[in-house]
Design goal:
By secondary structure, the chain is mainly α. The protein contains seven helices and two strands, in the order H-H-H-H-E-E-H-H-H. 71% of the residues lie in helices and 6% in strands. It starts with 6 loop residues before the first helix and ends with a helix.
Length: 164
């Protein structure tokens, strides 16, 4: 048996590959953060405003308290964010007709603004389309599954820190 096929060398290769995946995910997170910052700057939104707008678009309409929980932010912080998003025409607050408390509101994204937002992400979306075209359907399913599981792990880690 050669040294390159020994269990010890296989374990070392696996550790190196795992480290490379983690490093790549950190680099991707940094690049996406920089991209989001540039998008936010163009739209005159803070990074956290853009994050909350994304959550509202994905999960809304929703109450400010649900948004605070999803974002891991204090409700008072979310109030300021929603004020900025509403002033910018990105969201509207509406009375919740189903709530027992007549003061209850839900927040929804203004769909008319989506084109502006999507336009700023067009370069990244095109690059990802080209990248995905290089992979088979099976490889794409594997990658999508990995990313879903990595996202779930990140969510769990975030919730653990939020609960402390």
């Amino acid at each position: 048996m050669s040294s390159t096929s020994s269990p010890r060398s296989a374990a070392a290769r696996r550790r190196r590959s795992t480290v490379a995946v983690k490093e790549s995910l950190r680099e991707l997170r940094s690049q996406l953060s920089l991209l989001n910052h540039q998008v936010g700057t163009r739209l005159e939104l803070k990074d956290v405003d853009l994050d909350c707008l994304e959550l509202i678009g994905a999960h809304g309409p929703l109450s400010p308290s649900v948004l605070a929980r999803l974002a891991g932010l204090h409700p008072a912080t979310v109030t300021g964010i929603l004020d900025r998003l509403q002033r910018g025409g990105w969201v509207v607050r509406e009375r919740d007709p189903d709530a027992a408390d007549r003061r209850a509101v839900t927040v929804r994204a203004v769909r008319d603004r989506n084109a502006e937002l999507f336009g700023l992400y067009a370069g990244m979306n095109s690059a990802l389309d080209e990248l995905c075209a290089e992979y088979s359907e099976r490889e794409l399913e594997l990658l999508a599954g990995f990313l879903r599981r990595a996202t779930a792990a990140g969510k769990e880690a975030t919730e653990e820190l939020t609960d402390r």
